[in-house]
Amino acid sequence: MSFKYPASRPALDGRELEYVTETIRDGWISSQSPVVQRFEEAFAAYHGTVHGVACSSGTAALTLALRALGIGPGDEVIVPEFTFITSAWAVTYTGATPVFVDCGDDLDIDVELIEKKITPRTKAVMPVHVYGRRCDMATIMELAFEYNLRVVEDSAEAHGVRPVGDIACFSLFANKTVTAGEGGVCLTDDPRLARQMAHLRAMATPADHSYLHKNLAYNFRMTGMQAAVALAQVERMDEILATRRTIEKRYDTLLAGIPGLTLMPPRDVLWMYDVRAQQREELRAFLAEASIETRLFFKPMSRQPTYFHPDWRSLNAGRFSEDGLHLPTYTALTEEDQAYVAGKIREFYARAPSGRAVAAHGG
Ligand SMILES: *Cc1c(COP(=O)(O)O)cnc(C)c1O
């Protein structure tokens, strides 16, 4: 089903096509393309970090970061319950064990709960800036200092938020704020970590091409075409982030005071606008009929078959997963579009205070 108002849509109205065309015309389509390095430098500079290592996905970025920090079998990594599943999978891929911590009311990891999950095996903590809300990094960095933990930020939903951990990992998937279609980036100030991630990304290929590979590594490289798209995006990141800020403020105003709808705390950068909605499933169906696509919140890691634990129901993360909803969020969304979305939501709750919205709507 295709929606007039999709949940997200990439902003490809800059120089993306021009840069891709140049890349193909020059024949630099592989990861050896100079555009990859240009993108890495531009993305790092934008975030105030020294090194950028581009790779094939956000999941690959997290995996490279953990491996470069030496995390592996026998180690534990603190990961939030409320996140996208590959935050945890990246830990599992390395042979280490993710240890889950519930979220607070802003959906980010509850820093008050971290300390009691730290054991002698804990090597790192992975704060995830969920839906563009920066975690309490001051407290996390203090804990990291006290317990000698490495910090890998999952910044997949927080482009523009300045990294402070050892490595910050971004996704460039098509629904993220800056995209290459598929792709990822690791940012760090540590030249040794940057070198190690670049090495692991490229099959641990030795400089002399002797085909002697000293590490178990990956092919997680980014192509020149992907970097061309991403570079064009980074060049107008200020504009993209400002437009998203405007979209956030408009939704805040348009959706205020609707009974049945709960607004969420402000974001540091807007990824997908999030709300909590009573009668969520009925509301989704009503909006879908009005050609408005919505998306659900994450489910807790303890609810996932990979990590199942029956206690997920008592978690904050479990509660949010039951009624959280994302509204259409993309830079081409106009004020009129947003007023239409908000109007439909208002209409739903005005008609159906008792949960019979779909029947009422269908006649
Ligand atoms: C999107 C996302 C990822 C994964 O990124 P991919 O590029 O899809 O691999 C990881 N963590 C979070 C929080 C995400 O939103």
TrEMBL record:
Residue list for modification N6-(pyridoxal phosphate)lysine: K176
Swiss-Prot/TrEMBL cofactor(s): pyridoxal 5'-phosphate
UniProt GO MF annotations: pyridoxal phosphate binding; transaminase activity
Keyword Transferase part of the UniProt annotation: yes
Active-site residue list: K176
Entry keyword Transferase: yes
Coiled-coil features, chain-numbered ranges: none
Pfam family, one: DegT_DnrJ_EryC1
Domain of life: Bacteria
Gene Ontology BP annotations: polysaccharide biosynthetic process
Record keywords, A-Z: Aminotransferase, Pyridoxal phosphate, Transferase
InterPro entries referenced in this protein's UniProt entry, alphabetically: DegT/StrS_aminotransferase (IPR000653), PyrdxlP-dep_Trfase (IPR015424), PyrdxlP-dep_Trfase_major (IPR015421), PyrdxlP-dep_Trfase_small (IPR015422)
Family per similarity comment: Belongs to the DegT/DnrJ/EryC1 family. L-glutamine:2-deoxy-scyllo-inosose/scyllo-inosose aminotransferase subfamily.
Matches recorded under PANTHER family: DTDP-4-AMINO-4,6-DIDEOXYGALACTOSE TRANSAMINASE, TRANSAMINASE
Protein name per Swiss-Prot or TrEMBL: Aminotransferase DegT
Organism: Streptomyces cacaoi
Gene it is expressed from: perDII
